[in-house]
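Researcher: I'm preparing a figure for a lab meeting and need a structural model of a single chain. I don't have an experimental structure, so a prediction will have to do for now. The sequence is pasted below. Please return the structure as C-alpha cells so I can convert it later.
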Amino acid sequence: MKTLDYLHLDASGAGDVVNGLQQLLADFQVFYTNLRGFHWNIKGHGFYMLHGKFEEMYDDAAEKVDEVAERILMLGGVPENKFSEYLKKARIKEVSNVSCGEEAVSNILDSLSVLIAAERKLLSEASGVSDESTVALMSDYLKEQEKTVWMLVSFLSGNCKK
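Model: Understood. Here is the structure written out cell by cell.
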C-alpha cells in the first residue's frame, strides 16, 4: 500500500516532481546553513537588525526544509539526509566568514534567485501532473520570497537622496 494509491497521482509524474523536490531540499539545506553563519558572524552597521532578520530567515528555511522533505515522502520518495550529498547536488554554495551585512544580503539575494528559479520549474512540473499540493506549496514560497527579494534590494539601495 502506497500513499500515491490514494492521492490519484501518476507515479511517473510524481517521480519527476520528487526529483525537483530533492534538488530544492539540497539547496534549502545549504541556504539554511549559510543563514546561520550570517546570523552568528554579522558585525558592524545594522548588526541588531540583521542579526534578528537572519534568525527569522533561518527559522523559515528550517520550516521549509521540513515541508519539502515531507512532500517528498508523500509522493513516495525518500528525502536525502546527508549533508555531504546536499553539497554535491546543491546549486547554492556554502559560504563562510561573512561578517559584512551587504555581502550577506547580496549572498541571500543570489540564493533566493536560485530557489525561486527551482520553485518556478517545480510549480510548472507539478501543474503538468495535476499535483496541486506541490503547486500550492511552491506558490506560497514564491509569494513570500518575492517580497523578501524586494525588501532586500531596497535595503541594498539605501542611498537616500533628497
